[in-house]
Amino acid sequence: RGILRPAFAGAFEADPLRMLRAARIGAGFALEPTRETIELIAASAPRAAEPAGERRFAELRAMIAGEWPLASLGLMNRLGLTAVVLPQLASLRGVSQSANHHLDVYEHTIEVLRRWLEVERDLERYAGRSAPAVEVALAEPLADGLTRRDGIRFAAVLHDIGKPATRTEQGGRVGFRGHDRVGAEMVADLCRELRTSGRFSDYLAALTRHHLV
Questions:
Q1: CA angle at residue 144 from 141 to 145, to 5 degrees?
Q2: Beta-bridge partner residues of 173
Q3: Are 203 and 143 contacting, i.e. CB atoms less than 8 angstroms apart?
Q4: Burial classification of residue 70, based on how many CB atoms lie within 10 Å of its CB (0-12 exposed, 13-18 middle, 19 or more buried)
Q5: Is the pTM of this model over 0.85?
Q6: Per residue in 102-114, pLDDT tens?
Q7: Burial call 135-145: b when 16+ CB within 10 Å, e when fewer
Q8: Where are the beta strands (DSSP E) in the chain?
Q9: How is residue 67 annotated by DSSP?
């Protein structure tokens, strides 16, 4: 019937990771969570960060590197899990930017991911004759069962997480000086928490540190 619900009432209490799994499966199969499911997850959401870092990373990896990353992140946010599992991303909501941006930092981040997915789907349009070579490069194994393409998706999600800590406003002008450096440090901290490989952490931190270049 296209609905998402737990197999039993105590499912999320028995294993809090099932809340993240609900977001992944719900997005992957276009399922609508029942009101009861939303209420059960809301009651247990603070426990979503309890599972071991590598288990949480496995679910995030399946969502972001999977077929429906935007839908997965959207459902995770709707279920109140983003603030617990990826507080660095949730903290971007409501952070306004300069007049050159029409979106807050959170919506800008989601738009960056959306645009990157467009590039993935139509490499010939964006890379021209180099498209085949770019496709090969993006498919290269990176680390943790992920490709370079997947790493760029993660970087799209995390590249601006240093902005809330560096936001300044003077004379009506908004700035985020040093957010690339601060963001890279935050990415490294997050990767340690999620117990990713050092190679994956270094890759994400480098993309974050140099995304303004």
A1: 55
A2: 170
A3: yes
A4: middle
A5: yes
A6: 789 999 999 999 9
A7: eeebeeebbbe
A8: 3-4, 32-33, 141-143, 146-147, 168-170, 173-175
A9: S
